[in-house]
């Protein structure tokens, strides 16, 4: 594959930029990994630039960005206690980042390289990527939803400039596309949708742990349980507190319920206190970080995947929710919120249910749905089978051409 450049034909080299990359977890890291695989398969990937810690970098293609360790440390610099000096210190911090970003792009890229930026969240990434536009580098900007919500409030002019200068914009869902176009409708012609995917072939090659091994590893009795599972960064918009309350109420009626929650985050301690307050320690468990093997092994045994996502009064955004399609692949009934792109990951009334968890009515509806399936095994199996088929059909392939405009490539 080649890129045309002033009547010359030279190899198309692509630089992938992503703040997060495996072994880090989360939606951005997973998306970046699948983009890198698509580019590698097409022999395009030249380098990956990320903010990962040094000990996390094992791939020779990965370079740790020089901007990773540049921090403002507000209140720690001399003069920060005085308003004027604090502003000057912050301005100097931004200038430092800007200069280092320019140096890094000049060092790591050539003028004919093409850059695919998988994330754009927070001022550091905004500064780093805005320098691409100033250097007239050609790039694709990938947006996930929360980045749009945050940037249009804090860095509207700079974010709009970056979007306008991008050769192509890729979003992870129709909901994210609608959010972007509500910010600037003129971006419609360059905006394309590429949902996250699950690599079915790789997952099927994993050695999954049987339920007995899982019980031993986590010291939790799992045999003959009706297993509910959540795997997420433990933040408010994931709604894990809603799931805990709902399943605690249902446990009186269905004592075989067991709820496993994987992940860490700012809500971890609060959720632990909630579980203790409900006297639910013997059937609701916080697992903390778990491996991919452990996650898929649990999904292979669980019946329901529940993550009551919500918008936190329109201050947060769930761009898609790859965890839902991973769960569907393993025949789980999936339950999520109606806000953002979750309605594209869950086919309502077929692979699971979507509720508006920004309203209180959703709680009784959620309980009623779970109760309905726990008393109708035939319907439960129908939802589970439809989930796997839905994922296999819609979320199993990512093509590199979604990220590089056809006009840049000559076959």
Notes on the structure:
There is one protein chain. The strands form three sheets. The chain has a seven-stranded parallel sheet with strand order 5-4-3-6-7-8-9, with helices on both faces. Strands 12-11-10-13-14-15 form a six-stranded parallel sheet, with helices on both faces. By secondary structure, it is an alpha/beta fold. The longest helix is centred in the first third of the chain and has 26 residues, at 83-108. The chain has two domains: 2-197 and 397-408, 3-Layer(aba) Sandwich (Rossmann fold); 200-394, Rossmann fold, CATH 3.40.50.2000. The radius of gyration is 23 Å and the shape is globular. The chain contains 15 helices and 15 strands. Residues 1-11 have low confidence and may be disordered. The termini are close together. 41% of the residues are buried. It has helices spanning 27-41, 83-108, 123-134, 146-154, 156-165, 174-183, 200-204, 211-218, 240-251, 268-277, 292-301, 322-329, 342-345, 361-374, 377-394; strands at residues 2-5, 8-11, 14-18, 45-50, 62-64, 114-117, 138-143, 168-171, 191-193, 226-231, 257-262, 284-288, 304-307, 333-337, 352-355.
Q: Can you tell me the overall shape?
A: globular
Number of beta strands = 15
Strand order of the biggest β-sheet? 5-4-3-6-7-8-9
How much β-strand is present in the residues? 15-25%
Oligomer: single chain
Order of helices and strands: EEEHEEHEHEHHEHEHHEHEHEHEHEHEHH
**Based on the structure given, which CATH architecture of the largest domain is correct?**
3-Layer(aba) Sandwich
Q: Number of domains in the coordinates? A: 2
In helices, the fraction of residues equals: 40-55%
Please give the largest β-sheet: 7 strands, parallel
Q: What's the CATH class of the largest domain, please?
A: Alpha Beta
Number of helices: 15
